[in-house]
Amino acid sequence: MKHDTQVEILEELLEQLEQGRNIDAGVQVRAPVDTYVCPEVAERERDELFRNHPQLIGLSGDLPETGSYMTIGDFGIPILATRDKDGHFHAFLNACRHRSVQVATDARGTKNVFTCPFHMWSYRNTGDLVNVPDEGDFGDVDRACNSLLELPAVERDGLLWIHPTANGDLDLDELLGKDLAGELASWALSDLRYTGEYVIEKRLNWKFANDTFGETYHFQKLHKNTLGQLYIGNNLHLREFGRHHRFVTANHAIRDLRETNQAEWLLSQNAFVLYYLFPNVQLLVAEDNATLVRIYPDADDPSRSTTKISFYFSEEAIALFSAAAADGAGIDDVYDRDAVENSFGLDGIMEVFYSTVELEDYEMGEMQQRAAESGIIDYVVFGRNEPALHHFHRSFRDALGLPPCEIVAVAAEETA
Ligand SMILES: [Fe+2]
Question: How far is the CA of 210 from the centre of ligand 1 (A)?
Fold first, then answer.
């Protein structure tokens, strides 16, 4: 990110702190709860926002070398993602051209050739069919017409994008827009190594899960003893990029920032920088690490979702945190503000994040889900200090052609 932009955002966050206020959207928004429980809406979401929409499936570090592959089942069809011998990224329908059995079943690994377990037809990681056993008995098979069926796939600036439909439109310039694409490129995400994934399956609609990432109002309440030890809360910068947005909130280091030279200000050292990428991705970035959160609706049940949290670090950060872990530091040290910087291991950093999401945020979401299913509540309210949630619900409703949420104007005496 340009240094000017980093300074601008930090100035905005400092101003809020100095004036003792949070961001102000000027209005509240009422979001109808039927969209969290309605099977018809859920079916349309799966079809229009997931199966027929470009999808970010990971970072380049998920396919770290030639021959790396991943299997993906998040969009209702089996998908195989590969990196071929020339380093090119591909996505295929994970189905043999003979009788449609999956040619790969492990979540990830390294293979140059995939062999179907049923009759052992085999394919290169470029999709080419290379062997048909007993072809004399089977009859001729035209190799050229029987490659794995390829799906649109683009690797750009360290991000792996696919479209889960054979002829789907995967135009990243159009999807992201120039400003956001340029900003994502500036974080050097292609240099990061994948260090692990944590999967959360809970009884909450994917949008309740997503909503927990949309405001900092709760940081000093729900997360008082966890994330609240690291981040100030009630403090937010938001910039919309079409249906996506940039969400930044300060950590405690910002309190000393005015005493330093502005030319040396670094956003990621003083704040948590997150990009929401429509419809279901929260991407947290810093100079030497990134965390990718992908939230998927259940295939059948609107009340369930799966969250996949993947972690990525630079080689230098991995070396640094591994050394710290060898000293025996753990998760408690992460929350100890007086602890020596970096005195905790990689596992501690990852655990802080996923355990907060699973044990704090999503516990709230499960309660919200039950209440939404009561049929007694009509809507939930997003405050003036929760504009990222206004934006998410506006975007998702607009994408599905649903009427906009009700906006509650601020009373005249409040603005006077
Ligand atoms: Fe939270």
Answer: 10
CB 377 within 8 A of CB 371: yes
Would you call 241 helix, strand, or coil by DSSP? strand
| Of 294, 88, 75, residue with least CA distance to 166 | 75
| C-alpha 203 to ligand 1 mean position (Å) | 17
Mean pLDDT computed over 161-177: 97
- The CATH homologous superfamily for domain 3-53+178-415 is Naphthalene 1,2-dioxygenase Alpha Subunit; Chain A, domain 1 (3.90.380.10)
Cα(220) to centroid(ligand 1), Å: 9
The tens digit of pLDDT for each residue in 198-247 reads: 999 999 999 999 999 999 999 999 999 888 888 999 999 999 999 999 99
In the chain, domain spans: 3-53+178-415, 55-156
Ligand 1: centre distance to CA 311 (Å) = 18
Q: How far apart are the CA of 140 and the centre of ligand 1, in A?
A: 59
Distance 164 CA to ligand 1 centre (A): 30
Residue 279 in this model has a pLDDT that exceeds 90: yes
User: For residue 209, which of 97, 12, 363 has the smallest C-alpha distance?
Assistant: 363
Both structure tokens of 164: 């889960």
Contact 270, 248 (CB under 8 A): no
SS3 of 91-124: EEECCCCCCCCCCCCCCEEECCEEECCCCCCEEE
Q: Which residues pair with 27 in a beta bridge?
A: 409
Residues with CB under 5 A from ligand 1 (ion): 361
Fold assignment, 55-156: Rieske Iron-sulfur Protein (2.102.10)
Direct distance between the N- and C-terminal alpha carbons of the chain, in angstroms, rounded to an integer = 37
Q: Residue 386: CB partners within 8 Å, gap ≥ 6?
A: 25, 214, 215, 217
CA of 223 to the centre of ligand 1 (A): 7
Give the closest residue to 113 by CA, choosing from 98, 131, 125, 99: 125
Q: How far apart are CA 22 and CA 76, in angstroms?
A: 40
In this prediction, residue 342 carries a pLDDT of 45
Ligand 1 center to residue 360 CA distance, Å?
7
Q: Ligand 1: distance of its center to the CA of 247 in Å?
A: 14
Q: Tell me how far the alpha carbon of residue 226 lies from the centroid of ligand 1, in angstroms.
A: 10
Distance 175 CA to ligand 1 centre (A): 28
